């Protein structure tokens, strides 16, 4: 839950400043365990996303299609299935959004020997 100090602070920042702060906060954290990421979101990131949502000029999802269609490279994710298989190359993981509402997650995985899989 957002505290009053954080909420007031975010009100003074520009939208690009908030986005840059989010990028700064998540840098290097994408390999953390899912539980850690969820707690980090709840305790640190939620107020930033709440403020961005409040400022969103496209309140209806249908109006957002044009701005999200295309290929995106996630910088931080709590999608658990992305790391079910070991060896995912984070820099070569993408989300592709289509204008018909469908999307796909695509990732390249490093080859590893069977012994590695059994240790996992």
Number of strands: 3
Helix/strand class: alpha+beta
DSSP helix fraction: 40-55%
The geometry reads as globular
Across the major sheet, the strand order is 1-2-3
Q: State the end-to-end distance.
A: 35 Å
State the order of secondary-structure elements, H for helix, E for strand. Answer: HHHHEEEH
Can you summarize the main beta sheet? 3 strands, antiparallel
Report the uncertain regions: none
Number of domains: 2
Radius of gyration: 17 Å
Mean pLDDT: 83
Our estimate of the beta-strand percent is 15-25%
Oligomeric grouping of the chains: single chain
- Helical stretch count? 5
3D architecture notes:
The chain is an alpha+beta fold and 120 residues long. It has two domains: 1-56, no CATH class; 61-120, no CATH class. It contains five helices and three strands, in the order H-H-H-H-E-E-E-H. It has a three-stranded antiparallel sheet with strand order 1-2-3, with no helix packed on it. Helix 2 (15-26) packs antiparallel against helix 3 (34-55). The longest helix is centred in the middle third of the chain and has 22 residues, at 34-55. The protein is globular, with a radius of gyration of 17 Å. The chain starts with a helix and ends with a helix. The model has no long low-confidence stretch (mean pLDDT 83).
